[in-house]
Structures are given as structure tokens and as C-alpha cells.
Amino acid sequence: MLYVVILFLWLALLLYLVMGGADFGAGIIEMFTSKPNKMRTRQTMYNAIGPIWEANHMWLIIAIVILFVGFPVIYTTMSTYLHIPLVIMLMGIIARGTALTFRNYDAVIDDMQKVYNKIFVYSSFITPLFLGIIAGSAVSGRIDLHATDFMSAYIYSWLNWFSVSIGFFTVALCGFLAAIYLIGETNEASEQKRFIRKAKLMNVAAVVAGASVFAASVAEHIPLIQWVFGNIIGIAAVSLASISLILLWILIYRGKRYIIRVLAGFQVTMILLTTTYKHYPNIVILKNGGYLSLINDHGADKTIVALGSALLIGSLFILPALVYLVWSFQRKPQNIKDQH
């Protein structure tokens, strides 16, 4: 049952990155949109993420609950030594959701709309930035359980080139996902071309940020290259991601607006597999060679069995409901059109 729990943890992180990442990316796309096009971008973006923008955070909640219940030592360590980026990320989630709600449903349209817009786009950028920073910090080997001062314990554990570069890579990846998804959310050729240009921009940004991650890993003596290219799984995942990226751009120019979403999600899956496979089950790598393992540092066996059972049973209800939610909102415009 332990492996069932670990699988759910990995899938929850993947789905949050794919679905929540595209959600955050919509705000990032808006940030880099010219003023004349912002209103159209907002409308297209809201039509796309409106049905599920809040449901996406379910995956983050599931991941947190799994760590809290099933791996309390890991949860305690991360929430203690990485509490600053965690708080900033959570504040970004709250600010973004609040701004999105008020700017779309506020009864009074006034200058506060400008405030809501700024909060939305900045929090859409900050949240994935610190999500990536947290992920990088967990494997950077900078968390020092024996630190004797505030800076060493709570700042240097995450404020370093490697972690920050992963943060910017996550931002670029989210923007790329959003641009790819938004291509299929409009039927106007001019709008599709505009989102294709955004996808190109974010694709280049992701490549540059990814190169920065590898440069940082070399400079800070983190064996990222070995993790990625030192095993057959990593090499295969990188190869498949590269092939799918080429295929994605071919299909974009052939007007295949929906299959490209699957390919974009597949690329994110391969990236996550590549970066987690080699050092599994060590989810947190500590300073001076220590680590926290999903295999060795889990809770009581009875707790793991209960948690795994709850996840299996819960998925039977949650997953069909989520699929129906997305399907029903996609069908609604067509139904309304049919009624007329």
C-alpha cells in the first residue's frame, strides 16, 4: 500500500503542474500581452479556466495531505525549513483566486478593476516561481538540519541559483502550457496566431531557463546531469519529450488544436519523470549527504494502509466528478447555441 500512496503523491504533483500550471500560465500570458489585446486575452482565458480554476488546487491539497498524514517527518522538515517560500506561494494562490473572482464578479466596475488585474497577473507569476523554488530546494542539498543561525536555516535553504532557476523554468513551463491550451479556445485565426506566438516565446523562455538550471547545477555541484542522463529511463524520457515537442509544432501549423494539449501534458510528464526517477525514493536531499526517503521515512503501517485505501476509494468519486465538470462546461456553450 505504501507504493500506492507514493504513486498518488507523484500523480497529484503531476496533475497540479499540468492543470494548475496551465491555470497560472493564463495569468503569465496576460502579463506579457499588449494593452490593446488584454481584454480579449482575459475573456478567452476566463472561458478556458473558469470551470476548473479552483478545482485545480485539489491536487495540491491531496499532495499536502499525503505528506502530512503519510510522511510526517518529510512534511515537518519541508514546512519548517522552507516555510518562507511556502507562505509566499500560498499567499499567491489566495491573492490570485481573490483577484480573479472580484474582477469578474464585482458588482461595481471602477478603478479597483486595475488593482484586481495587477494582483491577478503578478500572483500568477509569483506562485509558480515559488513552487519551482520549493521543488528545487528539496533536492538541492541546501537544507541544513543542524543550522545554528536564521539565514542558514531559513534563507540559504532556498535562496540559491539552482532553486531560483528552477522557479523561472516552472514559470516558463506554465506559460507554455497556457499558450498551447488557449490556441484551442478560440476560433478566430488572428487570435490563434497570437497565442501561437506566445507559445513560441514561452518555448524559448523554457529552453533558456532549462539551460540555466543545468548551469546552476554544475556551479553548485548538484548531480542533475547524472540524474537526467545517467540512466536509461532519463535518456528515454528526454528523447520522447524532444520528439513530442517537434511533433507538437508540426501539428500546431496543421491546425490540430486539441491533440497538442495532450502532447504538452506528455512533455511535462516526461520532465517530471526525468527529474525524479534517479534520486527516488529520496524526496528531500539534505546538506552533508543526508536525505529523507519515501520508503524509510513514512508513518505507521496502519496509517499508510488507511491513507492508501482512502485515496483509492476517493478517486472513484473525485475523478469521474472532475471529468464531468470539465465536460459539462465545454458542452454548455453548444447547448445554449442549440436552444437558439
From TrEMBL:
Domain of life: Bacteria
Entry keyword set: Cell membrane, Membrane, Transmembrane, Transmembrane helix
A Gene Ontology term for the protein's cellular component: plasma membrane
GO MF term (any one): oxidoreductase activity, acting on diphenols and related substances as donors, oxygen as acceptor
Keyword GTP-binding belongs to the record: no
GO biological process: one example: aerobic electron transport chain
Transmembrane portions of the chain: 6-32, 53-75, 81-99, 119-139, 159-183, 204-222, 228-251, 258-277, 304-327
Subcellular location: Cell membrane
Membrane-protein topology: Multi-pass membrane protein
Main location: membrane
Family membership noted in the UniProt record: Belongs to the cytochrome ubiquinol oxidase subunit 2 family.
Name of the protein in its database record: Cytochrome d ubiquinol oxidase subunit II
